[in-house]
# Entry
Amino acid sequence: MYSMGLDLDHAYRFVKERRPSISPNFNFLGQLQHFQGSLRQKSTDGRLVIQPLNPPNATRYSPDLLQSNAKQ
# Structure
């Protein structure tokens, strides 16, 4: 989407034509919609502003987290 300047619909079709078996899940499509929105935001000088997909307080993968959950 970013490098080819495609919106979500066109990017999906582009990939689907090349790999018909794709079937992205609902959450991934939501992330792509969010990314599409961030691509459309522009700063005051006209450059694209890319926002992180995950909020700063999002839980991230951590081996320590997995080990602590396994012990419970």
User: Anything to note?
Assistant: The chain has one domain: 1-53.
